[in-house]
Design a protein that fits this description.
Blueprint lengths: L1 H11 L14 H12 L3 H17 L4
């Protein structure tokens, strides 16, 4: 069943190494770009979490 799901997923994603302008990218660059698309919000989420931790430390209870 897992192989079938992977096959269906591969049909819906863009092929590696083919950007919109038609030029071919290297597999390493294509893989890095795909990884960055998947982790697009990770840096922002980590920043917001660290900011929330800092604010809790800075505030005092009355």
């Amino acid at each position: 069943m897992r192989t079938w799901k992977e096959f269906l997923k591969s049909l819906t994603r863009a092929p590696l190494g083919s950007p919109a302008d038609g030029r071919t990218l290297g597999l390493g660059l294509a893989t890095a770009m795909e990884r960055s698309r998947q982790d697009a919000t990770a840096e922002v989420e980590e920043f917001l979490r660290s900011r929330a931790r800092d604010e809790r430390r800075a505030t005092t209870s009355r």
